[in-house]
Design goal:
The protein is an alpha/beta fold. The protein has seven helices and nine strands. The radius of gyration is 17 Å and the shape is globular.
């Protein structure tokens, strides 16, 4: 622990006491889920020691504690990305704070580009593995052998089964696939997309992988879902833009919200 996680957790507990079980990282389009938390207390990141404030307009940069479907949750409404600072461990303090608050499970969400025709924009995709194409790692600089982290089961199989069950219960299709992390902030080129397909990726994006590594390093179980906002470069008639990401993200996010609520209801 860096120390900032404990300090920030104390600030959160002073605002709302309690132990929490599930932490969520909300990506583009899913910020509205934070407004649905019952008994919510909201703490801006700028009030929490060591928390990064995102420069991305679709990310609120606030921590929300309360309950959803009867389950105590801590929500990170917005994340800081590697491309904003060049620091792959930028989300370490927020994740350490969730750990200090008692979270055993992390659910990460993001916006991503699809590499396969069967997963179209507006669809959710459950991540079952990842490819770290950026080459960066948030554990660089760790001084003991804990840095040699086993990621063979980074995305918890039981949590994935529970999320698939929840999707079936609410009548939503939930594809599974491999997510490939590019550093951003520029979108991938058509050649890079062809490379990603060749390497076995099903979706590409600019986040989540560092957070998954950190959460597993901290001993938390992890699941992650992408909302598909576009097809990869060269796979759609028009070019790529962040405006399209913001426009399409709420479509898939609405489906993910239904799935997450059913998942939590089953857990309660």
């Amino acid at each position: 622990m860096t120390g900032f996680g404990k300090e920030s957790a104390e600030i959160v507990r002073a605002a709302r006491s309690g132990e929490y079980k599930v932490g969520m990282i909300l990506g583009s389009g899913l910020g509205s889920l934070a407004t649905e938390v019952e008994g919510a207390v909201r703490v801006p990141y700028c009030r929490l020691t060591g928390f990064p404030v995102s420069s991305v307009t679709a990310h609120a940069s606030e921590l929300v504690v309360g309950t959803l479907e009867g389950v105590p949750v801590v929500i990170l409404s917005g994340r800081a990305h590697y491309y904003e600072s060049g620091n792959p461990s930028i989300m370490r303090t927020p994740l350490e704070t969730l750990k200090e608050l008692g979270c055993e499970i992390i659910i990460a969400t993001n916006a991503a580009g699809s590499l396969r025709e069967s997963t179209q924009p507006g669809s959710p995709m459950l991540i079952n593995d990842h490819i770290n194409w950026s080459g960066m790692n948030p554990l660089i600089g760790e001084e003991d052998e804990s840095r040699f982290l086993d990621l063979s089961s980074a995305y918890d199989a039981d949590l994935r089964a529970q999320l698939n069950k929840a999707a079936t219960e609410v009548g939503e299709d939930l594809d599974e696939g491999v997510y490939m992390w590019f550093s951003g902030p520029s979108f991938e080129t058509p050649a890079e997309i062809r490379l990603a397909q060749t390497l076995g990726a099903d979706a590409v994006g600019m986040s989540t992988v560092p957070e998954v590594i950190l959460a597993r390093f901290l001993g938390m179980r992890v699941a992650a879902i992408s909302t598909i906002t576009n097809m990869g470069a060269g796979l759609q008639a028009h070019g790529l833009s962040h405006d399209e990401t913001k426009e399409m993200a709420p479509l898939g996010a609405a489906k993910i919200k239904k799935i997450l609520r059913a998942f939590l209801k089953n857990m309660a």
